Amino acid sequence: xxxxxxxxxxxxxxxLLGATGCTFITPQSTKIEYPASDGVNISDADGPIDVRxxxxxxxxxxxIGNLIAAIVNPTDESATLTISxxxxxxxxxxxPAGDTVSLGADEEPLRIVGLDTKPGATVEMHFQSxxxxxxxxxxxxxDGSLSYYSDLVPxxxxxxxxxxxxxxxxxxxxx
Length: 175
Fold this sequence. Notes:
Mean pLDDT: 85
Structural class: mainly beta
Order of helices and strands: HHEEEEEEEEE
């Protein structure tokens, strides 16, 4: 009788192990980090700043683009991020200590004139902060066909300030 009890317990343990054993050697999908949107995350192990969900929304011909991203500074000191593209003057963004700068949400996006990359492609950008050598990454270039990106498409022309009319009239000439 005891042998049947031991055999049934062993068989139950074997069936249980066979049914769940794969989870012991399979990596858990929920522990894999990935960008949850259309952009990419950039992390430089040597630099203080991280970039989250970086993407470019461009005009149809790809000549002008807006860089959209969240720039995170988890340190106790203010830090500067330099963003470089080939053939374009580098951009610098200073992020206060323990703060986030959201380009395209809380702040204006970075306007890239001379982008020369059509939507659907990627553009190589170099992100550097602190004393690090920086990280190069391929950033996706999208258009405004999705409704939530439509207001982020850059205008074709650069707006020039217009003179503001005054309410005061010029004095009449004296005779």
